[in-house]
Amino acid sequence: MGETVSVHLTHHHGLGNDFLIGFVDRVPGDGADLARHLCDRATGIGADGLVFGTTGSTGRPVFTLFNSDGSPAEVSGNGLRCFGQALARRDDVTDLNVVVDTAAGLRHIVVDGDPADVEVRATVEMGVVGSGPSFEGLDLELVGVEVLDVESVDLGNPHLVLRVEAPDTVDLAVVGPAIEAHFAPVGCNIHLVAVEDRATVRLRPWERGVGLTEACGSGACAAAHIAHGWGLVDALVDVVMPGGAATVAVGEPLRLTGPATWIADHEVAVGE
Question: What is the DSSP letter of 143?
């Protein structure tokens, strides 16, 4: 066993999708176990994910995310907005403009606001959309309602978007894991969407490694990109989720804009 040190964590949320964020010299070897422990809403602090910020060989910040079940996640739109706020608070920077490394590649974050602000506005360049996982053979009857359209994409992490008339009528706590099982062992983020008008999409997310969440930033990007490809929305789309709305500018790269909100600070013991 290595030495135990105290790590300062800040707790943030993007539209209710919340993250614990700590800046460390290196990612702890027991990061997955720490995520399961700290993110547990009954016995830990409670969050959808645990983020470690380190400094790469280039000097850029490095974003490393563990889902609440301990699994690694390549990227997170809400997580990156929260990470931007955490960086701005740590470094006492107003209107932060930074490029960070993620497992999905470089991501550009712009934070509009003062480091002391509880809520800031942040925009993340979410990269270029790639081909998603195959859903050939997927039983769409698992959804329980008629699926009008279906498509998958990759934003550094995998997404499946299913268009239905009324996402709120579906028991996503049952449907999400049933559909995600088709993509085992890698898994997939599952999103039910309905197009309201040329500028508005409603989305309910089931997130790989977490489950039901209030919002999914990369999922919002996936939904906007796919709906635009179907010809149903314009290039600037408000994606309305249970936790609130984020705005996606469809293009190369996709741009995600929405709030990041500081919740609290915590000190935790971490083994090196």
Answer: G
Q: What angle do CA 236, 125, 116 make, to 5 degrees?
A: 100
Buried (b) or exposed (e) across 85-103, using 16+ Cβ within 10 A? Answer: bbbbbeeeeeebebebbbe
Residue with tokens 């789309």: 237
DSSP letter at 32 equals H
Of 59, 63, 74, nearest in space to 101 by CA = 63
Six token digits for residue 247: 């705005």
For residue 72, how many other CB atoms are within 10 A of its CB? 13
**pLDDT tens for each residue of the chain, 272 residues long:** 457 788 999 999 999 999 999 999 999 999 999 999 999 999 999 999 999 999 999 999 999 999 999 999 999 999 999 999 999 999 999 999 999 999 999 999 999 999 999 999 999 999 999 999 999 999 999 999 999 999 999 999 999 999 999 999 999 999 999 999 999 999 999 999 999 999 999 999 999 999 999 999 999 999 999 999 999 999 999 999 999 999 999 999 999 999 999 999 999 987 66
Contacts of 141 (CB under 8 A, 6+ apart): none
Classify residue 178 by its DSSP letter.
H
Q: Is the pTM of this model over 0.85?
A: yes
Classify residue 112 by its DSSP letter.
E
